[in-house]
Protein 1
Amino acid sequence: MVLKSYDVLVEKVKALPEKKRVIVAAAGDEHTLEAVFNAVDEGIITPVLVGDKAKILDILGKMNREFDADSIYDVPDPVDAAAKTVELIREGKGDFIMKGKLETAQILKPVVNKETGLGQGRVMSHFVLNQLPNYHKLIVTTDGGMMTYPTLEQKKDIIENTVDTLKSLGYDCPKVACVAAVEKVNPKMPETVEADQLAQMNKNGEIKDCIVAGPISLDIALDKEVANIKGYDNEVAGDADVILVPNIQVGNVLGKSIVTIAGGKMAGFIVGAKVPIVLTSRGSSAEEKYLSLVLAAAAVAGK
Amino acid sequence: MVLKSYDVLVEKVKALPEKKRVIVAAAGDEHTLEAVFNAVDEGIITPVLVGDKAKILDILGKMNREFDADSIYDVPDPVDAAAKTVELIREGKGDFIMKGKLETAQILKPVVNKETGLGQGRVMSHFVLNQLPNYHKLIVTTDGGMMTYPTLEQKKDIIENTVDTLKSLGYDCPKVACVAAVEKVNPKMPETVEADQLAQMNKNGEIKDCIVAGPISLDIALDKEVANIKGYDNEVAGDADVILVPNIQVGNVLGKSIVTIAGGKMAGFIVGAKVPIVLTSRGSSAEEKYLSLVLAAAAVAGK
């Protein structure tokens, strides 16, 4: 199974017998609450709010929202709210996390705590699922910026995080393209060397449940015709489910190209912990925020 | 002046009182000759052919083309054809170069020769002019891959090559965005440090005739609204004429995104020598080849 569009995913989540519960850490933030309650209206999620209760009630009041004040966990300090959020996940009081008004590092600190956290022994990475204007299915780009210049081992973790997430979304054996500027391994381009090593690790069974190709250029990964012209024959060519970028500079330009230049849709969350962690910024569109909640709900439903 | 679209450039070149002369090095190649004669039909250029005469005449015959056989420089060996091409440029027998059936390194070797070449004391870079689906003018992306991991000094050369080329196309003071994943200088991200240094070199007059901003993310460079949301205030934000990429990995993914994902148009040539050098590959679309010849003709007309 592969996902053809976000509509499929939205329908899937709306049809769930029980709404997934998002724990919002430091929820006293207008744009976060708007995104959350927009998704509530659409029947996507049930919210659990952690943060400055007075502030949260004030914002909900201005939004004309009715919400059971007693259900709010009153933890005004963002660091404490993050710790409480992780504790609630461990107690089974919620299915995934959304970051509110606190720094990314603040929410991640209790998540990565070796004893009381939600780690799984891998690095965490940003999983972004994109709907492109001219591609025949959704496509993941990763890492979106958690690991700035990942090592080979970290790239392996990133692939495994991504494959696990796609499996929870229903994929059988995703096709992963480790992109680089050229298809030939060139010792002067470490990106090509590591892409080749990842493909080898997949061949020898170290990276499982997926097909990894690389080094492969982006156009070959996305367009079978280009692959044919360039004589590149591979299952991944023209049919990639995942674009693994070599570092944050490439990932950032690719992400911005997809949204700003191509007008694509994107949504995502942090993977590698026991539950998804949705981060959206003030700059994110309402649609991106909504689809990120949809995506996280679908991922936890499939676990 | 800025160029809004390729149509403007095509009209400009068609209106030139005299057609610019392209010297085709190792012209015995079907896809090269097709591109050249397509541009001849459109009134863009006059060709000067250097290469294996028998082969060239054979291909032209199959294409049902009439061409003065006596005007062909019969130089069957590609290395010799490259040398002859450079010699002809120096003798004023042509205005720019197009690479035919030979390696890029083969055509560049006589070009960079210190005594008999066409160098200008700078590195050479690939200048690509793109027409994006949603941007209000054409935009350059550079370097397209001549310098794989340019140093700071080489990035300065690349900017100067680009600005000189844009000036010959009629631009007054192009806006250059040195892109990176973040806007804040971070010593752990050398791309941001060098982008900042380039902006400083522009402020202190070392890089002239343009406005350089950086580090700046791609979306801020292209979209004023995003710039406003992120509180980034700068003349280049939302109005960049040039995207300077930090290395070949970023440049390649950006170029492939523009064409494969966004369906943009692109064309380009190598700059830094005394005349443009057009390189197109078998994989290039007919339109890209045509527009590259248009672009080179326009650039030499404006010198």
Protein 2
Amino acid sequence: MTQNSPSRRELSLLRALLTRGGRKRSNCCRCEGVRAVEELLARRKDLVQFIVATRRGIDAMRCELPEVKILSEEEFSQYSDTLNSQGVIAVAEIPESPDTPVAGDFILALDQLNDPGNFGTISRTYRAIGGQELWYTKGSVDPWCDKAIRSGMGAQFSLNVRKFDDLRSLCDAAEKAGFQTIYIADPHKGESCFTAEKLFKKSVLVIGSEANGVSMFPENSRSVMIPMPGDYESLNAAQAATVLLLEYVRRNTQYI
Amino acid sequence: MTQNSPSRRELSLLRALLTRGGRKRSNCCRCEGVRAVEELLARRKDLVQFIVATRRGIDAMRCELPEVKILSEEEFSQYSDTLNSQGVIAVAEIPESPDTPVAGDFILALDQLNDPGNFGTISRTYRAIGGQELWYTKGSVDPWCDKAIRSGMGAQFSLNVRKFDDLRSLCDAAEKAGFQTIYIADPHKGESCFTAEKLFKKSVLVIGSEANGVSMFPENSRSVMIPMPGDYESLNAAQAATVLLLEYVRRNTQYI
């Protein structure tokens, strides 16, 4: 591991990447925190542009680090987006909409999901259950913003993240790739997620925005619900996603 | 609905209840927000001491209100614990450790769970799946603190909440009540939650602290895990609880 100081250009990029415009101009993002950087290095080392860290941040990392630019705690705090930083940020190229063919048993589609914490948590759970294709529509929070990457602990770097203009074009692309059944997660109606037969069989599972649900209902789409005994508030978006995604694990008995 | 101003004693109580000491002295708690107050009124109207609200808060309520003490928005903001208040707070007696017999198919036990948001979210999900007995150990966050009630949307008022000195005395009490099988949620080992046969058959399901897991392993307890395909970070405490609790719903086919 070689060490030196970050250049002025690098420091200015670090700050610019906190904005959507900054990320768009450079096609890079910030990946902050020990676990997120570990995930990035383990899975997509090729994307790393540079890493800045404090001595404390370097000590906390459990993996081999490439070149690191050192900052003092005080300097670092000016670039961190968290209250209690872990002392390490990587700048990485955004691997959005890769050229690779569509992989796996089903596509998880997030339609205008607004909250970066939810986007991150859902990405992380999807990665944890072995998901591969994370698709989303315009109007969602940026999956590559600081908070989404931190909440996801860098899971985004392990997924094929693809962006679409709207849910219709997303479903068209899925159909072309052989994923023909569209399931819309609904809080109140539809087939039970515990019995819906085609739920993970070359299908798309769509989760809509926290406040308004999905932006539209594609032709021939089906609704899938998590059955609940009472007439109570439904689960929030991240909880619902967790239950639906773990149902995939339950059905794949080799894991059980 | 009659309306007048809160007394000085009531306003001072409102503030005192933000502290654990204040709640202990008066055996009361604050229940803030439209949904939480609606839940309280629907389920345990008998506990309500008084309600303070702004005109806006009153308009937002979808149920019949008893007597309400009116505050201006400016006055209210001095007593609210949230940034964007909904303009209504009820003060209610704490219904802890009720005299009623232990009810239902299983007991959910939270052992030194620290985060009020997690405590609230788990309470809410447990209530939503028809759970009845929510037990917890000393060292947990106070279930009646402001944030736990807000996150729970008042679900605590619909549950039999009982406190124990430690996990051993909790398990002893459960055994006496006929709940003999103890399951400890474990991130890595144990029976699969999708197949563990006795999971909800007069059992106790224990969820430990976010950082350290359970405080001890009671004699003859079993571990139950959520199987995950990869070698990835486990789900957080609230996500794990959601999956385990929804497994109860899945097994009770009358709901599906």
Protein 3
Amino acid sequence: MKVTLENVLPSEIERRSFEIITQELGDRELDPEQAPVIKRVIHTSADFEYADTLCFSEHVIEKALDAIRNGASIVTDTQMGRSGINKKCLAGYGGQVYCFMGDEDVAEAARKNGTTRAAASIDKAARMDGPLIFAVGNAPTALVRLYELIQDGVLSPALVIGVPVGFVNVVQSKELIMKTDVPYIVARGRKGGSNVAAAVCNALLYMLDETRGMGNGQEQRQT
Amino acid sequence: MKVTLENVLPSEIERRSFEIITQELGDRELDPEQAPVIKRVIHTSADFEYADTLCFSEHVIEKALDAIRNGASIVTDTQMGRSGINKKCLAGYGGQVYCFMGDEDVAEAARKNGTTRAAASIDKAARMDGPLIFAVGNAPTALVRLYELIQDGVLSPALVIGVPVGFVNVVQSKELIMKTDVPYIVARGRKGGSNVAAAVCNALLYMLDETRGMGNGQEQRQT
């Protein structure tokens, strides 16, 4: 048995999806620099609420693309986020994707200091060299620890993607990040997730790729 | 600088989140067997729409738990989904989690047959022995291929978790699965994703764990 549905070539599905998203956003005026990020988050979630909730600090897209061009690495708080980010594309600029959540020294530090592993993994990342992008899709405690280290002058991230999802301290942790003067992209409210974190990273990567004429992808499919 | 927010111990965050979800669902009567799945999907997405859109075939929870107890493996269409499923917990019952999307033979078969890799990876799974649960969080073409193989009598999954997200053929592919007589859990409409697929799997696993007195987890944190 062979089923035929809407006749769209596999390679065309993403382009067609973005057309539909653009169409359904209608007259809504998106900042042209922010639009690719907003649309890719909607693409990965089918949730148009993100057009209202995504918050961008001033000139953040320009700053984020510069950081990637300069070889920034991405630190994320979940293996799911790590799976979803296009690592090959990032490697083309010299960066790597790290998730320290499963590391033994992080578990040990968390136990010792009575923190979450997510907070301890931020401490570990703070000891790294080079420009860093933090993509937080799960743990508000990671955002809170980032806020503390930023306010103490210990850490100066090139970008904080603050999109944890959840019901306890999530909303507040995002508001904290928006009080700092570091570049941020934050999904205000409860919604977010590893998929959203990966989508924001990939949107940035593909914005650079377009100027390099490279292909596109779908974050959920990356290995 | 040390920030103090809502005072909830890390180990208590998930329990507290489920309390909030239960509270906000209010008077809504959920089927007690389905409730843990619905709540965990809301937990992973902060999206209460899933209380309306998740569809369950008759006795699906009972059948799904039986399949896991009998050592069913899970085949998923993304590495993100694979990352999110609690593999250690599944292994306790004898099952494994597979994602064939990156396999060379799948890429080759897709090229040869002019299909997506997602469809080709279902064909590969169809040659496996033992009970299988399919957790589709991304590719409607995987669901369509499942439908074709089910209708042809080639494949008889123990459970189909049909939760792809997107704008092209996603809605239709889910409706197709609900026309079959295999056990299914489907998120009707456009919404879903790898995180939702993992959440459904983990909800089922933790339902069994409760009876075994094992701990709980958060799918986004699994490695």
Protein 4
Amino acid sequence: MIKIIVDAMGGDNAPASNVEGAVTALNADSDLYIILAGRQEDIQAELKKYKYDSSRMEIMDCRDSIGMNDIPTEAIKRKEASLVKAYWALKKEDDIAALVTAGSTGATIAGGQIILGRIKGVKRAALCPAIPNSRGGYTLLCDCGANAECKPEMLCQFGVLASAYAEAGFGIKNPRVGLLNNGTEEHKGDPLRQTTYQLMKKMDVINFVGNVEGRDIMMGDIDIAVADGFSGNVALKSMEGCGKLVLGIMKKEFSASLRTKLGYLVIKPAIKKMRAQLDFDGMGGALLLGLKKVVVKSHGSSKPRTIAASIANAAQIYRNNLVGRVEELLAGVDWQSLVPKDE
Amino acid sequence: MIKIIVDAMGGDNAPASNVEGAVTALNADSDLYIILAGRQEDIQAELKKYKYDSSRMEIMDCRDSIGMNDIPTEAIKRKEASLVKAYWALKKEDDIAALVTAGSTGATIAGGQIILGRIKGVKRAALCPAIPNSRGGYTLLCDCGANAECKPEMLCQFGVLASAYAEAGFGIKNPRVGLLNNGTEEHKGDPLRQTTYQLMKKMDVINFVGNVEGRDIMMGDIDIAVADGFSGNVALKSMEGCGKLVLGIMKKEFSASLRTKLGYLVIKPAIKKMRAQLDFDGMGGALLLGLKKVVVKSHGSSKPRTIAASIANAAQIYRNNLVGRVEELLAGVDWQSLVPKDE
């Protein structure tokens, strides 16, 4: 039995979406046990709408919740907030495997680093979403927002963290790691990229394939794109924005007249493929990598299916021992010989 | 009569594509005069295929050309290279208004800064493409590759340069300038973004509307997104990559069977709108802003219509006095009081 704690109050559609998503995930996996953290009466009101195995679902009552505009490092001190209480339970209870939240990204990162704690040797936790690629799989983008400023050693570690995720989450052996840069040639980029390139080349624990560009993320010729949190965030949101525009145009144009509605029916399979290609929520949310336990940050606007996917993904990578794999890989790097002392 | 010099040898499809594009542009605008820089015999062989007013077209024979893998600062010294000769002519001949090239980006930037020179007061030239947005217009992204490392003052200037382009190229009065960041709140981003935000707030010559995210570029609620060349490049290529994937899927799926081909005919207008939305070459190429004359860098893979669009765009912004407008706007900023001395 895998026990997962879900922040029922985080996100734009909480608690309705979160509770429905949790029920969906629970019903799909008989080996799952879910704790819903949030206002008991609100959660109970939502739970009443569904059929589920109540012996595998419990509520952890929390009287407070964190909003999107709260200051993360302050909010994370509010002991009755659902995310905070969930993090403390995750830290203290050995049998809780993972946390899923659609709440404030900043508070999720702060709670992860301050309450739960990082795996020994990890410099910084990193946010890592799975981007749909043209091979029908996913490309991991790490970091995409937790660390606006990075040093070469951090980028190297992001490559390690994401490699462990690619293995545990997608069964990819020896995942291909690219460094997100402004060109593919070895000398390209700013000093951060130039130094990181030289370090990654020397690392045996990752399968470094060189520099990649923004357009390579969705192509799928790599499994992982390593970025600082700033440019990773820009890349993610640029792709999402482009995808949303296209889907928006399709929706509007195809429902414009009887003629276009009929046309839509004929080409539905093609449209379905396009939708799948642009489904950035397919895997639910981004992993917060480098922490002592599995933490999944679902989109703030998560729908029930997004929450359910995040929970299923959390269970999957727990089963495949993500944290253990990170520790193994990290142990294979001699950081002191890799990174010059003055770094 | 506007005289424009075109590097006939730059780009993947040169000289065929460049010459055809030049002829198209010439035939569309009777006020245009074009100089084609490149191997005379190759250009003449291409020109023979078309009808055009030969009194408005001349060839500047150049025996050398710059490849995509040549080192820019070295290549720009090769005096017989078409791009180099074109830059020298642009610098020396008062009546040449603009240069259009699809050649090496690095060499174009190097030639612009070293041969042609910057407008007085401009710290760095910046590459500024026009991204199609959902309002049916374009959002300017500046810088997107000329400067991987930037200081706050440079980002402020990019806002000024792009504002002049938005006016001269698109007739936008008081264009809205956003700072590309990893979130919209004022405190977001790294120190570079935080400092730039505070400086831009104080600048009267630009209409600063605050931080924007990657997804806002294609939305069109802003006219200009200011970025360092690194993250701007990542944003551009991420959007392009996403767009190309979608168009690739459409092309493949819609030609898969008779059924889908018929379906395609019915919904053709909708598809056309999607194509327009994803046409990153609509304006031809990116402007290299901040130089003493108009320079347009067309895509390396430019087709004839891309070259023609680049030439038309160059003529348009020359007519609307881009360089003069940059000088006017720059004169309106008191940099010494704006930027602290230790910057």
